[in-house]
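step 3/5: co-fold with S-adenosylmethionine
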Amino acid sequence: MIRAKKSLGQNFLIDSSILEKIINTTIIKNKIILEIGPGTGNLTSFILKNKPKKMFVIEKDNELASALETKFNNKITIINDDVLKIDETKLFKDKVIVFGNLPYNIATEILTKWIINLKNNFWFESLVLMFQKEVADRIIAEFNTSNYGRLSIISNWKLNIKKICDVKPSAFFPKPKVDSSLLFFHPKENFVKIKNPNNLEKITRVFFNQRRKMLKKPFNQIFNGDQRVLDKFKIDLTMRPQNINLDTYYKLACEYEKLGS
Ligand code: SAM
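step 4/5: write tokens
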């Protein structure tokens, strides 16, 4: 009997209608699939029924990894490691579809790592990921709303994002305390080219440091009060950070890069 480990965010999906919904978000047949945190393999079994070309899983828990070995034998390739330490760009030659009912304590870290580490080519075709609802709401938030912030800006930079559904705690065992949401991510064909993504991270960190305050202080910190930048992007220093739209943040990151070069 496997005991769920809270420290590894283990809430296993047991509702087959939700498992069906997850695998029906995209075509699996003949595709290369990567599942993050397969746990006891509930979602893994549903994915395998749809006949992928090959399936990889990354599971940190040694006990679960060896139980998966017994359960699935040679049907899957198990990587018994921490997803945060893996460089997926080096792991796959062909594009993969990623599924994950993510461990909630590190879900945003996983997503941010993937976006920041993306080189010119996407190593994935799409991502089908479960987050805690409050986090999903921040990922898909529109500007001028209270949920809009760093996570929305970084997530939407290179990806189109669609919410599939919300999921109640009763779909999991053990039940989490919060609702969850399933999101679907698809690479954008066109996005603003920022040479060093750390600059986008830096600008959003400084701008959203005090999200209720006016922009004057963070703007001066980054752009030294440059009036030309204010005019170019129609920024008024009495605005709050959530009043600047996605595209302007990406362009501000490019502008910041130009200053340094
Ligand atoms: N996919 C399973 C399901 O839906 O029933 C389990 C999902 S559970 C929310 C999260 C899974 O991620 C657990 O199996 C946990 O052991 C694993 N995990 C936690 N931290 C991890 C990490 N850093 N790297 C890889 N797997 C991790």
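step 5/5: annotate
Residues 8-13, 37-40, 42-43, 58-61, 64, 82-84, 101, 103, 106 surround S-adenosylmethionine (CB under 6 Å).
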